[in-house]
Amino acid sequence: MKRTYSEKKISRELIERLKNEPKRFILFLMNQSDKTIIYVLEKLGGLKNGFNKEPLLMLLSHTNENVRMLAIKNLAKLEDINLLPTFYEFAISDDSSIVRREAVSAIGRFRNEKMIPFLVNLLKDRDPKVVLQAIRGLLVFSYKLDVKNELIKLLNHPNELIQEIINKELIGEKQKSKIQQQVEAPDFLKNIVVYGDVQEVLRYVPNESVHLTFTSPPYYNARDYSIYQSYDEYLEFLESVFKEVHRVTKEGRFFVLNTSPIIIPRLSRQHSSKRYPIPYDIHPFLIKMGWEFIDDIVWVKPEASVKNRNAGFYQHRKPLAYKPNAVTEMLMVYRKKTDKLIDWNIKQYSWEIVKKSRVLGDYETTNVWYIEPTFDKVHTAVFPLELCNRVIKFYSFVGDLVFDPFAGSGTLGRAAINLERHFFLVEKEEKFIDRIREELGKVSRLFDQDEPTRFLEINEFIKLSQGEI
C-alpha cells in the first residue's frame, strides 16, 4: 500500500533520513504526488560528496518539468564533473526551457576548463536565456583569449540583452577612463531661454549636461508653425533632435516625451482625413538610438475640452463609422541606457538634496493622470503647469537642469522655478519667446528667483558656450 505525505507532514528529520538512505528515498519518491516531490526537492538543502545520486538521477525521466529542473539543481550541488555529459544532454535536448536553463547553470557551476567546449556550443542555442546562462559560465574564463573571442562574437547577436551584457562585461567597462560628474550641470546652461533652431543650439551643448528632458514636439502639420513636406521628413527631424538630446543627457537620466496621434482634416467630403500614430512611430527610433523604455503614462483630459468626433455616429449608429473623442495624450518615459541601476544615480546626491527632493503628500499611483488642459491666448498647445510639476518632481532632484527643446510658452521653466530646479529652454518662434518672457517674469518675481532668466539669440548662445561672453 502506498503511503503518501502532505507537505505539512514532511519534517526536516524525515528529509535527512531520506538523504542517507537511497533505497528508501527512491521508494518514497515513487509513491508521492508531484507537489510533494517538488516540496522535498526544494527543502533538500546541502548534499555531501558521499550522497547517492540514484534517487535524483531517477527523477530526470519524470514527466513534470519542475521535478526534472529541481533534480538537476540538486545534482549540481555535488559538483561531480562526471555529471557534465548528463547536464549537457539535458541542456540541448530537454523539451522544457526551464530544465535546459538549469542544466546550463549546473554546467557553469563546475568552474572547470572541461566545461568550456560544452558552454561554447550552447552559445549557438536559439533560446536567449540558455545563451545567457552559458555566457555566465564562460565569463569566469574570459581571460582566456579563445573564450573571449567566442563571447565577443555575441555583440552581433539578435537579442538585445545578450548584446548589452557582452558590451558591459567585455567592452564597455574598459572604455570608461573616468567617473562622470552626475550632479553638476554647466553654469552657462542654467536658467536660459535660447531663441533659435534647436538643431543648431544643441550642437553647442556639451555631452551629458542635462538631467531631465520633458517636451512635446510640434505636431505634424497641425499648426502653422510646424509644416513639413512629408511625414517621413517630420519623423527624421524628430529623430535628429532626440539623438542630440540623448547625447546631452547624463548617464541613466530621463527623457519624457508627450505626444499623441494627430488627425489631418480631409480636403473635402470626397476625401478622408488622415490619422498619424506619432508616439508609436517615434518609439522605434528612440530605442535604436539608446533610450530604454521605462513607462507609458496616459494623460486624460475632460471630454468637453476636446473636439467632438462622434456627432455623426451618435445620429446614425452605423458600423465602421465609429470615431471616439480623443481625450488622451501619451507621456512616454525613457531612460538613457546604462548598466547601472537607479540607485547609482540617486547615490550621486547628498542626503540633504535627496531629502529635500522627496515627493511628499498624495500622488497618482497609476499611469493614468487626469489633468485639465491649459488654453493660452498665444500658443494653441500648452503644457498644463500640473503636468510639468509632476514630471519634474518624479524624475529630477532639486538643483537639477531640466530641458525643453520645444519650449512653446515656457511652462517647464515656470515649473522648474517653483520646484527649485534650473531650466534650459529653446524656442524658434519669436512670438512664443515674447510669451515666455512675460510668463517667466511673473514667476521670477513671485518666487524671488536667485538667478535671473537670460534670453539669448542663437549667436549670443554660441559665444556664451565658447566662453566669449
Characterization of the model:
44% of the residues lie in helices and 13% in strands. By secondary structure, it is of the alpha/beta class. It has two domains: 7-175, Leucine-rich Repeat Variant (Alpha Horseshoe), CATH 1.25.10; 187-264 and 271-465, Rossmann fold. The protein has 21 helices and eleven strands. It is elongated, with a radius of gyration of 30 Å.
List keywords for this structure.
469 residues, alpha/beta, Leucine-rich Repeat Variant, Rossmann fold, 2 domains, nine-stranded mixed beta sheet, 21 helices, 11 strands, 44% helix, 13% strand
Concise summary:
With 469 residues, this protein is α/β, with parallel strands linked by helices.
Radius of gyration: 30 Å
Number of helices: 21
Q: What percent of residues are in strands?
A: 5-15%
Q: Order the strands across the largest sheet as they lie in space.
A: 8-6-7-3-2-9-10-1-11
Averaging pLDDT over every residue, what do you get? 87
CATH class category of the largest domain: Alpha Beta
Termini separation comes to 95 Å
Unreliable stretches covering 5 or more consecutive residues: 173-180
CATH architecture of the largest domain, by name, is 3-Layer(aba) Sandwich
The major pleated sheet works out as: 9 strands, mixed
Which overall shape is indicated by the principal axes computed on the Cα atoms? elongated
Structural class: alpha/beta
List how many beta strands DSSP finds: 11
**The CATH superfamily title of the largest domain:** Vaccinia Virus protein VP39
CATH topology of the largest domain: Rossmann fold
Supply the number of structural domains.
Answer: 2
Helical proportion? 40-55%
